[in-house]
Amino acid sequence: xxxxxxxxxxxxxxxxxxxxxxxxxxxxxxxxxxxxxxxxxxxxxxxxxxxxxxxxxxxxxxxxxxxxxxxxxxxxxxxxxxxxxxxxxxxxxxxxxxxxxxxxxxxxxxxxxxxxxxxxxxxxxxxxxxxxxxxxxxxxxxxxxxxxxxxxxxxxxxxxxxxxxxxxxxxxxxxxxxxxxxxxxxxxxxxxxxxxxxxxxxxxxxxxxxxxxxxxxxxxxxxxxxxxxxxxxxxxxxxxxxxxxxxxxxxxxxxxxxxxxxxxxxxxxxxxxxxxxxxxxxxxxxxxxxxxxxxxxxxxxxxxxxxxxxxxxxxxxxxxxxxxxxxxxxxxxxxxxxxxxxxxxxxxxxxxxxxxxxxxxxxxxxxxxxxxxxxxxxxxxxxxxxxxxxxxxxxxxxxxxxxx
Length: 404
Fold this sequence. Notes:
- By secondary structure, this protein is of the alpha+beta class.
- It is 44% helix and 20% strand.
- It is built from eight helices and twelve strands.
- The chain has helices at 3-7, 19-51, 54-63, 85-90, 145-206, 212-240, 248-272, 378-384, and strands at 96-111, 122-125, 132-133, 138-142, 275-277, 282-287, 301-316, 328-332, 340-347, 352-353, 368-376, 391-396.
- The strands form two sheets. It has a six-stranded antiparallel beta barrel with strand order 1-7-11-9-8-12.
- Helix 5 (145-206) runs antiparallel to helix 6 (212-240) and helix 5 packs antiparallel against helix 7 (248-272).
- The two termini are 99 Å apart.
- The model is unreliable at 1-9, 68-75 and 358-362 (pLDDT under 50).
C-alpha cells in the first residue's frame, strides 16, 4: 500500500503506540472501578439498615434476626418497635434504651376471694373502678354472708350463757366457803361450851352433887362438839385450800367459757371468709366479676397504689454496667403524646428472659435482661396513674452525674 493510501484511512488505529503503554492504561481504569464497588456496597448497607425497606423488614421477620443483634451493645427493642422521632433525634451513643411498662408502686395487687370460700358466689360489689380505698376496707361480699352472720350470733349467745354460768358458780362457791366458815365458828363455839359443861359436871360429881349419868351425857356432848369442829374444818379446807378461781367448779365453768369464745372466734373467722377486703391502700384498677358469679381464679379485682407510679424497664445485660441508681430516665409512647420523667430507683439482682415482647419464652430465649425500676416524678406520676401496664420506651442518660 502506498503512503497516500495510508493517510486516507478514516480510523487512526494508533498502531505506532507501544502495546505495553496501552495495557497499563486499561488496567488502571478497571482497578479504580473495583475500588469503588466496596464503597457502594457499604453505602447501600448503611442506607438499608437505616431506612429498612419493606423487603429487608420481611427478611428480618422471616429469619427472626434483629438489626444490631450481633453488636457488642445492642438495644433491647424488638424490630417492630420504633423509637419516637423526638427521642431518636436526641439519642446519644451513651444512652441505654429498653422496653418498659408503667405500674403502680409495688406493682398491681390481685384481690382474690378469701381462702376457704368454697362454692360461694359474689353477692355484691361495694366499690367501683377508680375508687380509693384503705387497707382492710370491705370490697365485696359473698352469698354465704347471711348464714355465717347467723352462726356468729349463735356463738355470741352461747358465750353469754357460759359467762353467766361462770358468774353463778363463782358466787355459789364463794357463798359455800362463807357458810363453811360460819359452820366452823359455830362448831368451835359449841365445842367450847360443851367442854365447859363437862368440866362443871365433873366438879359437881366429885362433890357428889351430880349423877354419873349427867357426867356421861356431858362427856358425850363434848366429844360430839369436837367431831363437829373437825367436820367443819374439813369442809372449810376444801374451799380455803385454793383461791376462788382455782376451785374445781369454777375451773370447769371457766373452761366452758373458753370453749364458747373459741366457737365465736371460729364463727367470726368463717364470716370474714365471706368478705373480700383490700390487701393494701390504693385505687381499684379493674373489676372482673359481677354479682351472682363465682369468683374467678385470676382474682376478683385489681388494685394498686397509684399515688406513686413507677416503670419496670428491661435492660440488656451488656448495657447494665453503665446504669446507676439516680440517673434520669425519659419514657415515651405515642399513647400519651408527652414524655414521662423519672429516675432509676433500683436495679435488679438477677438476669432473666425478656418478657415485654411475648409471653412465649422460646421467642425470647436469647434476650437476657435485667429489670430496672424507675420512680416517676410527681407530674409524670399523676399523668401515668390512668395508664397502668402501658408499654413505653425508656431512655436512661448514663452520662448524668449521680449524687452518692
